[in-house]
Amino acid sequence: MKRFLSIFFALFLILSCFAVSGCQTESKSVLTYNKKYIITIDFEKDESKQNYWIFYDDGTCIYHNYEIIYGDKRSNYVCTFKYTLAEDKSTLFYFFDSVSYLEHNNNFNLSTSNSGYLIVSKDVVMNKDGSFFVCEEFIDNIPNYGK
């Protein structure tokens, strides 16, 4: 009887470990944190001239915009956003938090009500206008893109 109970207890522990590890896997984000998601047209550009997103596991992200021109207004900036993921983790909703203007800013002010959504995955993010941003770790998997 003691042998049966010890085998039963050992099986219970093993199954419990599998259940806990399965739950932890399901809660992971689909994003690759602390890595750049670079817009596809900027792959070959110098790093300082790229437009990209970086996501952090604390619910913040940044968007680096190398240059934006509206008529006679010109700027480049880094904008910080707070974000939340949809329950299925395929959509990210972001909301303005702060902005830092970089080397040139000519009467351009980013709206503090700047918000939006992104379709997200581990390797690719798509914004609402259909532009693709590819994780820097995935770029080597598409070596012929844009060549």
Number of strands: 8
Number of helices: 1
Coarse shape: globular
Helix content, binned percent: 10-25%
Explained architecture:
- This protein has 147 residues and is α+β, with helices and mostly antiparallel strands.
- It has 2 domains: 1-28; 36-141.
- Helix content is 18%, strand content 42%.
- It contains 1 helix and 8 strands; from the N terminus they run αββββββββ.
- It has one helix spanning 2-27; strands spanning 36-39, 52-55, 60-70, 73-85, 91-106, 115-120, 124-127, 132-135.
- A hairpin with a 5-residue loop joins β4 and β5 (91-106).
Architecture blueprint of SSEs:
Blueprint: H1 2-27, E1 36-39, E2 52-55, E3 60-70, E4 73-85, E5 91-106, E6 115-120, E7 124-127, E8 132-135
Antiparallel strand pairs: 1-2, 1-8, 2-3, 3-4, 4-5, 5-6, 6-7, 7-8
What distinguishing features does this structure have?
disordered N terminus; 147 residues; 18% helix; alpha+beta; globular; eight-stranded antiparallel β-barrel
Brief summary:
The protein is α+β, with helices and mostly antiparallel strands and 147 residues long. 18% of the residues lie in helices and 42% in strands.
